[in-house]
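Folded chain entry —
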Amino acid sequence: MPLLDVFFQQHISRWEITPYPSLFLDTSQCEFYKHLVRAGSKAGWLRFTSVYWNEQPIAFHFGFSYRGVYLWYKPSFEINLAKRSPGEVLLKQLFIAANQENDDVFDFGLGDEAFKNRFANRIEKVVTVGMYPPELVKNKDWEGE
């Protein structure tokens, strides 16, 4: 819990240079993560990892381990050190932790980030199907499909 605000700020800084702002700009998201810390810690599922360099946190990972699956959930790293690859250092530490816990799967979750292809030995496709009433379908070319 004491490092969450540092994690939030690091995540905000890391994402402010992209077109995708950090979810932690929303205080309700910060409160949700604080709730996850309390619930996940109590249940034994939470995995909050930090990597330090020169006594400063340079990378964080907020994830979970449950029934043999180590879930990559919300990472962050010090953007000013990006050329030194703190995210990859963090990832190595997570692989070590998952192995020490005898987890069978390291799940990178959804998304097509390039680094996932570098480290994954299997990729599963996730398909979402939606059914909508015709009056809600904006693209009428979809009707009848």
